[in-house]
Amino acid sequence: MANDSDSRRPPGPMSNRADGVTGDLVRLMPRDLVFVMRFLGESQYRLQSHFQDFIRAELAAGGLTTDTHPMIHLFIENHATLLRDFVFSGVSLLRQFRVDEIERLTGDTTSMIRVDIWDQLKSHIETAEQQFHSQAGTLPKLLSAFEKPPGPMTGSEK
């Protein structure tokens, strides 16, 4: 049985747990992993610009311009970004590929994609765990808002 000093000692390396969950995720990969398209670079800029021009014209048609609303460019920028992300997310969700389809398309007969994903998953899981451990000293203060309030609870609060 562990003594009190054992329970205060930081947990050991997380690699065994990370290996386990990584293995589970890789096992579920054929069912749960999908590859989606993502538009980058100039494509994002082009669609963003389109929506900025579109919103600016629509607002001007309603009498709202930078002359009447000097800070309207912030509204236009935010809403153009929302519309751009809506379009790209919708298109991406409609074009999903499973890992076996990607392997077939790329000619990956050795499952190197799965090995690479295993390595990346394990590394990111371990990094996330290390990040959590590095902030462990601040947890008591952060979690104080979740503490049980002092004093007895009345029947209506149970």
Account of the protein in words:
This protein has 158 residues and is mostly helical. Helices cover 65% and strands 4% of the residues. The chain has seven helices and two strands, in the order H-H-E-H-H-E-H-H-H. Strands 1-2 form a two-stranded antiparallel sheet. Helix 2 packs across helix 6 and helix 3 (42-61) packs across helix 4. Mean pLDDT is 85; it is low at 1-9.
Strand order of the largest sheet: 1-2
In the predicted model, the low-confidence regions spanning at least 5 consecutive residues are: 1-9
- Multimer state: single chain
Arithmetic mean pLDDT: 85
Q: How large is the share of residues in beta strands?
A: under 5%
Shape annotation: flat
Helix content: 55-70%
Tell me the radius of gyration.
Answer: 26 Å
Number of helices: 7
Major sheet: 2 strands, antiparallel
SSE run: HHEHHEHHH
Number of strands: 2
Output the structural class. mainly alpha
N- and C-termini, Cα separation? 35 Å
